[in-house]
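Ops channel
N.P.: pipeline sanity check, posting one input/output pair.
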């Protein structure tokens, strides 16, 4: 992966400039480096020590939907500079929480926020791996390390911004969907995954749309030859790490992704 290219090019994904992505990423950068670098170098003593430091951070917030976040930064959407983000802010202003959430990174339309970073459960899972043969298995290690890499975190920022922009610029369809669920289930605690009860998350059009934004961003980090060597499985594992398997094993999702890649002229020769 050519991460240096990734962070210096003025990448434009559906109008999101790399400056906005890096602006959101900045508060968490040193913490990601403190996990990713020792993990990559197999310095597990330092890795676990750094994870403990992160988990001991006392500054936390609790969102309206009762998610607790170890908070490193709070960004108002009005601070973003790209035209598409400015337009989205004028329609649907939000807060962007940067840190380590208790549940997951996500765009919560009904509560007007995005949270990006690494879920605490991922850090706890890494810490709980006591079998060094397991963590040093290259195939497993590569999949785990992907989800704590700088590239992956920046891709998730792009992914969640895409959800927000899709909502703001298309009649707030996420927000309306969530409000309808709340109205029908007024006696229940809000379920952020309610929209996937009938449709698998990896088959939803909104997730495919956000995934294509990630792929567009990732494509800019590779040469044409590198892109054409990759299979679809390679691409999805590089993007999603441990979370790639539900996509790889889903025939419908693969067809939807291939169709969109072809439409966006992103289909590599070896992905067909």
């Amino acid at each position: 992966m050519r991460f240096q290219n990734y962070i210096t090019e003025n990448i434009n994904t559906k109008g999101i400039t790399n400056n906005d992505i890096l602006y959101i990423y900045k508060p968490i950068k040193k913490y990601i480096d403190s996990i990713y670098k020792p993990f990559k170098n197999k310095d597990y003593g330092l890795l676990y020590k750094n994870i403990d430091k992160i988990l001991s951070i006392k500054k936390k917030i609790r969102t309206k939907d009762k998610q607790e976040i170890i908070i490193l930064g709070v960004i108002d959407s009005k601070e973003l500079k790209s035209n598409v983000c400015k337009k989205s802010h004028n329609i649907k202003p939000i807060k962007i929480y940067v840190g380590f959430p208790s549940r997951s990174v996500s765009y919560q339309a009904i509560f007007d926020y995005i949270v990006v970073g690494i879920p605490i459960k991922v850090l706890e899972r890494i810490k709980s791996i006591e079998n060094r043969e397991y963590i040093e298995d290259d195939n497993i290690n590569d999949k785990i390390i992907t989800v704590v890499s700088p590239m992956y975190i920046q891709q998730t920022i792009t992914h969640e911004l895409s959800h927000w922009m899709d909502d703001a610029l298309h009649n707030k369809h996420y927000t309306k969907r969530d409000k309808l669920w709340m109205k029908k289930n007024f006696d229940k605690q809000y379920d952020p995954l309610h929209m996937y009860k009938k449709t698998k998350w990896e088959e939803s059009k909104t997730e495919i749309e956000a995934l294509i934004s990630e792929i567009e961003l990732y494509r800019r980090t590779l040469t044409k030859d590198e892109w054409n060597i990759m299979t679809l499985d390679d691409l999805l594992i590089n993007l999603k790490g441990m979370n790639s398997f539900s996509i790889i094993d889903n025939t419908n999702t693969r067809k939807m992704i291939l169709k969109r890649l072809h439409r966006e002229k992103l289909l590599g020769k070896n992905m067909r």
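N.P.: looks fine end to end. The longest strand covers residues 68-76.
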